[in-house]
Every structure is written in structure tokens, then in C-alpha cells.
Amino acid sequence: MKKNNKSIKISGAEALIHCLLAEGVDLIYGYPGGAIMPVYDELYKFKDKLNHILTRHEQGAIHAAQGYARTSGKVGVAIATSGPGATNLVTGIADAQIDSTPVVCITGQVAEHLLGSDAFQETDIIGISIPVTKWNYQITKADEIPQTIAKAFYISKSGRPGPVLIDITKNAQFQEFNFSYNFCKGIRSYKPIPDLKLEVIQKAADIINGAKKPMIIWGQGVILGNAEKELKKFIESSGIPAAWTILGLSAIPSDHPLNKGMLGMHGNYGPNKLTNECDVLIAIGMRFDDRVTGDLNTYAKQAKIIHFEIDPAEVNKNVNVDIAVLGDCKLSLKILIPLIVKKDYTNWINRFDSLMDIEIKRVINKDLFPKKEGLTMGESIKAINNYTKGDAVIVTDVGQHQMVACRYAKFIKSKSNITSGGLGTMGFALPAAIGAKMGAPERQVIAIIGDGGYQMTIQELGTIFQTKVAVKIVVLNNDFLGMVRQWQQMFFEKRYASTEMVNPDFVKIANGYNIKADRVTKRSELKKAVKNMVKSKEPYFLEICVEKEDNVFPMIPSGASVSDIRLS
């Protein structure tokens, strides 16, 4: 344990601030209230060292912390009061848990003597958050704060990252004690990174070298493990075609010749179909979620499967694998690469390219170069690409626009695709974009949002107004909850139950927050409007009115085999 400072007598609330500063925190998101007020009093005193961003809702605070963590690679921090303040964090915490985002949440709690009495704004946030946190703990004595916060940051960022929640009673915030801080370097019984077994990597190499039709699929684990260079080298030195999950997007450049596209329900035609034709499937830092696998009874049954994974709980959870390479994928790939023999997979790669040609003719050309009157989401993303040149951070919400953005946005840098993957949280994008911009202030950050999800956290325009953070907001407005409407059209005989939206004037709302705004209703207006937005040095809102009843294809119907992917 490394000692950080000498013992000083201070309150629990001040101790918390010193702990955060010791962990390198200089930015937190939150919303004050009674049970956390002592901490906020200390934040006032330390505002020159610790920047607190007042969001307009606690859900905004946690999503902003997630966005910050995703672009910066640091631990995001969110703070809230007890009761509804704490429970408003839960959706974001669940989102961070399933998407492996390192965040530390600090909540106030009623005084220790009131616990269990149904006091004003008391709720059992520890009990509520157990299923959606990597670890949580309630502090009732001030002297518990240093050790607990050190442990919280260590657990959150080590191994497979995730959310941690620390609940601090009000009496512990007021109480004084002799403070000193020791960084946490390890916890008995907690092993964040499994030991790498060289013989297992050799077995994996032997299987890969014997393959005729191998395929690499990668996920966010590559980005979280800072293994982008190793992945690229592995792909290039082996010559094996590769595809990504939506959270793995941007780990290697979009235009890499061996990058064959997106897996999953609305992914590319080739990688989905050929999952069931490859003879070796090499999965790196991904968890075989149902959107990627489709029907498990038919998923890659012909292939030998090799799984590079840091979390033992994910191995053989959904898909039984032949070789599990447990450990840090950055190190695993470094050891694997020299063992791989580069082979000629021209015929196999041609299969991907021929299926892509089919997809271009039947789907992509219609999306990107439409001949119909209505604007498409695809051409909107293409227009953004033309001005960002793949260098922007794209933050997406959940729905049709998310799938279109993931399919068509171009990237040249890692940590550029920020979205809600596993939980599918509508309302994620606007606050997450605020955090993403603050985590990477030098980069262009563009939020792509649907008219439905936008209105779930639209109040965070107030945060943008107050902080002047230069986030660009694009609402692709089709006056529908588009993804649900698509399913209703395809599987429920066009019974559009509760999916039609009567929307407000989004431009006026943006103007009300003193944010520059524009609206596009015609194709002829699109290019100029996007150019003005991208060029702006200030926050900017752009509404693009797209066709109301357009659909996203390809599509794998829920529960179907990846081989049954539809192009229309």
C-alpha cells in the first residue's frame, strides 16, 4: 500500500474530497440534496481543484460520467443525494455494468440512527444496486472513507471495469477523524486479471494456423484493454477477415481492408452469414450477447471457437468454446502474433466482398444515395462523415438512428463510438455526449439522437447552456419511435400502438437554451447545414426531418439464426 499523505484531522466530507483528488479526479457530475449537503459544502471550498458539473437530473449525471469515462479512459464520478437522487442513478449504473464502464457513484444517506426508519428520502440504495454494481458499500463512520474510496476506484477500473456505488450516511460526513490516504493495490480474494497460460495460447495458434476459413470478431474488450495496436497487428499479420460488435467499433479504422463490418441484428450481411460458414471463430474481448449470436442452437456450430476474455464468467456462458484464453487481451495477442503463420485467404475474403456487393446493391445504395423524396438517416450520417473525415466522436442514443450511425459512421481513431450497448438506454446520448466532450475536449463530439430518446433527457440542454460545452446535437426526427414502429410494421400488421410522436418545435427549445439551431427538411439543405454545424466552435443543434416510415436493414429477426439475415 502506497501512503499518500500525513494524518490530518478533518471531517468525513472533506476527507472524501481529498480521496477524490488523490485518485486524480478533477471533474465530477452531480445534483445536490439534503443528505449529501456536507460534501457539497466542501466542494464549494475546493472548486479551484475539483470541477463539479451540475446536471439537470441524476440520470444525466451518471450518463455524463459514462461518456467521460469512455473517451478519457479514466474513472467517471457521479454524486447524488439519498432517496430519489440515488435511485435516479440506477439506470445509468445498470448501463455501466453491462457495458463495462468504470464509474464511481457516491450517494448521501440519512444519518446512521435513522437507517431502517423510513426517514425522509431514505431508501436502501445498497440493496437496490447490488445486482447492477461491481461492488457497493455503505459507510456509517468517517474513518471508513479513505479505505473504502481507495477500494472503490481500484475495483471500478481494474480487470473488467464496472460501476461501484458508495453510500455515505450524513453523520459520517460531519464526523471528524485523523485522515490519511493509502492507494489500494490489491484485494484478497479479488483477482482482476486471470493468469495467462502460454500452453493455451499455443493451442489457439495451432488451431488458427490449421484454419482454411477463419474469422475474427472483436468487442469493446479490445478498447478497454488498450489492445487496438495488437488487434490491428494480429489481423494484418494473419490476413484474417474481422468484424465487430457495436461497442468494438472504432478499435481499428473503418476503411481497413480486413475490416468486414458489423455483427448483430442490424449488422452487415457478410459477417453475419459467414459466422455460420467459418471453420475457426476467434472472439476477442466480446461476450456473445444475443444480438450478435441470434439463435444459439445454430450459431457457429461448424466452427472451432477460440475466446480471448478477461472475465471468466463470460466463458461458456452463452456459447461453448473450444479454447478459452483467459487474461489481458493486449498481452495475449502480443504472445499470439509471433506464433501465427500468414496464409492466403483470398477465396474466403472474396466471400465477404461478394456478400457486401449484394448488400450495397440492395440496401446501402438506397440508404446513402436515395432517389426517393424523403431524407434518409443513412445520407445524414454520410453528410456528417464528409465533414468530420472520421475524426469525430459519435455518441448515439438507442433505436434506428443508432443502428444506422453504427453502420455508416466512419472512424479513424479508437474511443470514438460511444453508445448504450447491452442495456439499450434511451436518453443516454445527450448527457453522455457532454461527458464525452469533457473527456476529450480537443475532439469534435457529435450526438446522434432520435426524437424519442432526445426527449427523455432533453433537460440536459440546461447543462450545455451553463457550461458552454461545445457538443453538437443531431436529432434525426421521423415523428415515430422508429425501431418499435419497424417491428410493428413487420411483425404486428402495422398496428402502430403508441409509437407515433407529436413533437414540439425542437429548434425553439434549443434557442430557449441559447444554443444555435437549424432544421433540415429538404435534401438540398443538408450539406450546408451539416457544414455549419461541424464548423461551429459552440454548442449546436441540428434537426434533420427524415422519412417517417423508413426501415433499417439488414435485419435478423429476434430469435432467428444469423444465417437468416434479411435484406428487406
Give an overview in words:
The chain has 568 residues and is α/β, with parallel strands linked by helices. It folds into 3 domains: 2-183, Thiamin diphosphate (ThDP)-binding fold, Pyr/PP domains (Rossmann fold), CATH 3.40.50; 198-352, Rossmann fold, CATH 3.40.50; 369-545, Rossmann fold (3-Layer(aba) Sandwich). It contains 23 helices and 22 strands. The chain has a 6-stranded parallel β-sheet, with helices on both faces. Strands 13-12-11-14-15-16 form a 6-stranded parallel β-sheet, sandwiched between helices. A 6-stranded parallel β-sheet has the order 18-17-19-20-22-21, sandwiched between helices.
Mind telling me the C-alpha Rg?
24 Å
Largest sheet: 6 strands, parallel
CATH domain fold name of the largest domain: Rossmann fold
CATH architecture of the largest domain: 3-Layer(aba) Sandwich
Number of domains: 3
Report how far the terminal alpha carbons are from each other. Answer: 59 Å
What's the CATH first level of the largest domain?
Alpha Beta
Percent of sequence in beta strands: 15-25%
Helix content: 25-40%
Annotation field: number of helices: 23
Q: Any low-confidence stretches, pLDDT <50, length ≥5?
A: none
